[in-house]
Every structure is written in structure tokens, then in C-alpha cells.
Write the C-alpha cells for this entry.
Amino acid sequence: MQEDIFDIVDELDNVIGQRARSEVHAEGLRHRAVHILVFNEENEVFMQKRSMSKDTWPGAWDGSCTGHVDTGEDYKQAAYREMEEELGWQPANELEFLFKLNPCEETGQEFIEVYRVQGNGPFRLNMEEIEVGEWMDLPNLVQRVGFTPNRFTSSFRLILDRMQALDLISV
């Protein structure tokens, strides 16, 4: 199986080269990712429990859809591709850009663009990527993260904190 190739980027998110996924992660190189939060009409967010075969955060809860930006893609292209690959779904509505996180230990040295979209599925989960999915209302989700933070990926916890700081969610 051919390994994914990622763009590596400088501190300003400018592409400075390409490397194999394993090298990017092993060497802690800056690269790019997307996180998409799918909300239904009850304002619940679809959460995924990562497959146990994942190389980072196996079995942890994460946002609706997450993934790396491949070489030659922009963030939004990667977001639409990841929704199709992980959820087997494309939204009827446009993605709404929420904010961008800078690389740090919690993000695995990823610049992360975070998007929100409205939709109810139906989803066809990629079982190689996602063990199970569940709709969660935001107040209960925030409470669950507070009680059991290590059951959620560090990048998702950062996203949730930023959403609260920007008053994008109220609990």
C-alpha cells in the first residue's frame, strides 16, 4: 500500500516540501489537517470514536470528521474529501469556516482549519477510520470532556475550548 504524502509547511503555513506521512509524524514536522463538525437540526454534533487501528488517539472520541490535507489540496478540498471518505456523505450546505489552530503538541504539529456544516446524514461510516458515531448535545459533550478528558483527542479538546472562547457554543 502506498503511503500518503503530505505538504510540510513553515511557521506561516507556507509549503516548503513534501514528505511521507510516517516521516512527518515521526519527526514532528508541521503539516495541515481539517476538522469538520456536523450539526443536526437539534444542534447536536455528530462525534466519531476513532478506530483502534489508528496510529494516534486510537479509540478516542473526536469531531465528526477529521483528516490530513494531502499534497496539492487546499483545506476546503480536503474537508469535502474527508467527509466522503470517513462518513460516506456530502452535505447539501456549504461548509462554514470557524477558525484555524496553529501547530502545537496538542495538534500533533498540525495547522488545523475547523469547519461547521448542517446535516443529518445518513452516514456510511468507514469502519477502518471510525469505530462508531453518535449525536451528542453540546452541554452534555462539554460535561463529558470535563469529566473524562483523555477519552477525547487533544485537538478536539482545543477546538471545544476555542469554540467556547469565541461564544460559538453556550452551555
